[in-house]
Every structure is written in C-alpha cells, then in structure tokens.
Amino acid sequence: MSSFDYRIVEEAAKQSYIKALCDLPPDVRVALHKAHDRETVPTARAIFEAMFKAIDIADQKKTLLCQDTGLPIYKVRVGSRFPWNGAAIKNCLYEGARRATQEFPFRSSSTHTITRVNPQTSVGPGLPVIYWDFVEDSDALDILMVPKGSGSENMSKMQMFYPQHGIKAVKKFILDTVVESAANPCPPGVIGVGLGGTSDLVMRLAKDAICRPVGQRHPDPQIAEMEEELEEAINATGRGPMGLGGDVSCLAVHIEYAYTHITQNPVAVNTQCWPARRARAVILPDGTTTYGY
Amino acid sequence: MSTTHHLTSPFSEADIRALHAGDVVYFDGPLFGIRDLTQIYIFDQGHTPPVSLEGMPCIHTAPSLRNVDGKWEKICVGTTTSTRMDRFTPGLIGTYGVRAIIGKGGLYQGSLDAMRMYGAVYLAIVGGAAALETEQIEEVEAVYFEHLHPEALYRFRVKNFGPLTVAMDSHGRHLYDEVAEEAKRRLPDIYAKLGVA
Q1: How deeply is B70 buried, as exposed, middle or buried, from its count of CB atoms within 10 A (0-12, 13-18, 19+)?
Q2: Residue B126 sits at the chain A interface (C-beta within 8 Å)
Q3: pTM
Q4: Is the CB of residue B67 less than 8 Å away from at least one CB of chain A?
C-alpha cells in the first residue's frame, strides 16, 4: 500500500480536466448528430452545423471547445481492492486541477465568492468539488472529471414539495424550470433531475444525472418512462437549439432518485449545456491509467 | 423563410435594415470585443472610446489572450450572456453608432427600440462553440483600455464569422420573445399530455 505512487493520481486529475475541455464524449457526439438529423428548422440546423465545426477544430487543434472552463468536479469511485489513502487522493485532485489550469494553460473560472479575486488556479476552498463513492469487487480508482460552466449551472433549481403535491407537481416543476431557463444554458443539453433524498442530496442526484452517458436510460422502467415523457414534453415546446426555435430543445432527460422522508418530496434540476463535457481516468493498483469518458 | 447574408464590416444602415429576424449572417472585417467592465468604464465612468465604433459590430466576449513580446495573441475567445449588459446597449447604438451586437441569450425592449430607431441588430452566436469563434478571428488588431484586460476594448479582424442568427432586427422583431410566446401557447397542451394540467 505504501508503495503506490500518488503522482499518478495527480497526473490523471490534470489530464482528465484537459481532456474534458477539449475532447467531447462519443455519446454526446452521437446525440448531437441524431438531434441534427431530426431537426427541421433551417436556422436550428445551421446552429448544429456550427457546433460540429467547433468540435472538429477542438479535435484537430487539441484546443478548448468552450472558453468557460467551468467549476471542476471530480466524482471518485474507490474500488474495494484499490490501496487508497483518501487524503493523498484529495491533495492530488487539487494539485491536478491547478496544474491543468496553469500548465495547459486555460482560464480559471473559479473565484473568491466575496472579493471576486480569481487566483487563476481553478482551486480554492471547496474547489474542486469532490464526490466520493465506494464499490465492491473492483481494483480500480475511477475518476470522472466534470467541468461545469456557468451558463447552465446558473439555471439550477431545487424545490421541496410535500407528498400531497404528488408526482404531477414534480413533473410540472421540471418542465417549467427548463422553459424558464430559455437560451441561457446553451441548449440542447442534458436535463439532470434529482428526486428524493434530502435538500442537499437531491441536488447531487441531479448532478449525477447529467454525468450519465447521453440517452442511457435509467434501469428502473418507471423512472425510464418518466425520462421519456419529460423529453417529449420539453422538445414539444419548440424552444430549439440556443433558444432560437426548433424541434430539439434537449438531448435527453436523465433522472436519479433516492429514498426520502415520509413528509417530503424534493426535486432538483441541473442542466448541462450541449457539449455535456466529461472525461474519465481509471487507475489500477499497478499504476496503469486508462482515459475514457 | 430564412436568407443567408455575407457582409463586410463596418456596416451601413442599409446593410442592417435588409436583415430580418431568422436570417443567417456571416461577415468579414473588424469586430470589437466588449464586456461588463468595458461598458461600465465607458458609460458609468465617462471614458470615451479612443477609436470610432461607427457602423461596427460589438461582441459580448470572454477572451483568453496572451501578450507575447508586446503583441496580443488569441488563446480562446468565446461569447458570454448578453442580458447582463442590456442597459449599455442603447448608448452603444445611439451615441457611438454601433450597428450590430453579437452575443447569446438576447437583450430587452429598450435595446430593441434603439435598434429600430437607429438601424442596428442583435446577432445570436452559438454559445459553447468558442473553438470555432477563435478560429474565425484572424488577428487581435488592437487592445484599447489595456489596463482593463480581460475586459478591455478589443479590435479583432474576422473572416467568414458565423453563423449568426438575426435574433433582434431593426424592424422591431425579437426572435427569443417570439419563440417564448410560441412555447407559452403550446404549454397547455403539453401539460395536458404530461398529465399535470
């Protein structure tokens, strides 16, 4: 255990941040092409074509797709057989995010919340955001990096309903939230929905939902059906890409749920912009690192 | 019914009056980058721009530039949300003769009125596609109010810059509002189908 070289984790934290900003996940590319295929409004089609050009340039030049490098989020899953030192991993994530920002280099989007001073590191109290999870029967340290830009994050919303309001109020809240967010979150993106839990957990569930590969359905058929219903409802509004009108207003609705209190019915919406950026690094105990999405 | 226009900046009033909401625009020539602080400096603190903006397009920019041996080079130039800068727009158009505001998300009624009165438009760019925008900027020609960087006044030279959607035209049409109205009209049916009516 003591022989594990944690610089490998720091490198993975750095490389995954850069990869997330430059290289769009294949499922997002497929979803955008499918959206373009079914879009009938000419200006909306031109918007998709501009997106494809931007993706090509980012691929060819290994450059940033969007200037908003977002707040860095690392979702870490520690396998039961991975020799882990949580404090060391945490330090590596902070240092990796800082090095990505300063060595690539790109704009730090992270700032002091009162003074608004930006030290150009992407790192500070509470940043990067780190979510920990632990899984059985795995050798791997699995790090999912998600940069979250402000256009979409600013449109987040949470509401505590009571059981008496029922699922109707929840569905209406989700639809109304998306309609109100208009062009701001750079649609069409993934609409992440959290259901249940506590006030803080429901927001995290919505964040988990935007990290799922685009269009992958929830395994629970009841939840999957609700995802389909809401997708159809949002697309029927005609808001379209960038809110300028069109057939495709979202790429997908993803819902994650947790049990909640008998007197509560929390719901949260966290939107992801059309690039739905994320990158993954999987590290094995021998130090082998594999990058993916 | 959407027409595609290829223009050269600076724009004449006739160039701009020929554009209608829903049209697509590409253009070549100079483009000025501005944002919050640039406009606070001009309008709230009374500093006149040291260069003419007559007929020019201005973009609500979020630039990442670096200064190499006294010359500014682009790293990544993207566009930011316009609504924050709405209150400065009638001044840019009325006082300084700006003919096009480029951004994402749109502006409000006062800006639309100024566009109608003086002959100007709002052109919506594709947000999140900074890689494309950066590629279409050929050069950072000048930086004015340099001490405000990254919120200085930038003069870029662009080639085939677009696609830009005419979202607010000089005839009083506001595409974002029209799309929102249409969504509102459809909502009762959508609620009914979703079972939440």
Answers
A1: exposed
A2: yes
A3: 0.95
A4: no
* Cα B61–Cα B27–Cα A68 angle in degrees, nearest 5: 25
This complex has an ipTM of: 0.93
Interface list for B 155-194 with A (CB within 8 A): 162-163, 165, 167, 175-176, 178-180, 182-183, 186-187, 189-191, 193-194
Query: Residue B131: which of A58, A106, A245 has the nearest Cβ?
Result: A58
Nearest to B62 among A49, A67, A169 (CB): A67
Tell me if A110 sits within 8 A of A153, measured CB to CB.
no
DSSP string over A75-104: EEEEETTS---HHHHHHHHHHHHHHHHHHT
pLDDT per residue as tens, chain B (197 positions): 789 999 999 999 999 999 999 999 999 999 999 999 999 999 999 999 999 999 999 999 988 898 899 999 998 999 999 999 999 999 999 999 999 999 999 999 999 999 999 999 999 999 999 999 999 999 999 999 999 998 999 999 999 999 999 999 999 999 999 999 999 999 999 999 999 98
Q: Is B142 on the interface with A (CB under 8 A)?
A: no
Q: How far is A185 from chain B (nearest CA, A)?
A: 9
Residue B175 CA to residue B118 CA, distance in Å, equals 19
